[in-house]
């Protein structure tokens, strides 16, 4: 068995929340290219289905679309049941759904704060919990939770206290789960991207003025490309990362190394 063999995902069953677009879609493409069968989970079923159809056509893998609200426990339980039934199991849970609201802290309503925390942190707990229960009963697995470099730094110039707090919580939650499940066959890690040049970011009127500022501060002088996260996604989903658990993998072009 070579290292390249260990990186293959043939036969693995994986879901990714927030997988219909952006970073989730790009990482889903990489996982399918490495041989995995996928469930694209999103609140927008139409977009999820379009992404699933596109990836299936490009890779020849089985890819299904599942609608779920990650903040709703019943939705999450049904999501796991649907995925395990239609894919025939679950080896890797990729909890990637998240949002950001840029509002100064003194102007942030409790509704805005709660929305960010509910999707980013509570949603990650519910999906990790549900996937973990299944994996504990079926021989183990790998859970990957998307955090952010914003868990480690305070971004500038945009105000995003709720997002930063939620993503720091994702890392500590994931470490806690990793310790609880370490001897039970379930690995839990986090992926912390830096600024990434998704279509949504590049075309956002709100964010366009910030891109030059971010690039000026970036050691590499640019944002990351979505496909530059595919390698770490495949690694964490694969048997090559069998000794990796409770770790945070920062892919930010050294932005947090200042």
From TrEMBL:
InterPro entries: NAD(P)-bd_dom_sf, Sc_DH/Rdtase_CS, SDR_fam. GO terms for biological process: carbohydrate metabolic process. Signal peptide: none annotated. Pfam families: adh_short_C2 (PF13561). One of its GO terms (molecular function) is oxidoreductase activity, acting on the CH-OH group of donors, NAD or NADP as acceptor. Keywords: Oxidoreductase. Gene3D superfamilies: NAD(P)-binding Rossmann-like Domain. It comes from the Bacteria. Belongs to the short-chain dehydrogenases/reductases (SDR) family. This is Oxidoreductase, short chain dehydrogenase reductase family protein. It comes from Weissella minor.
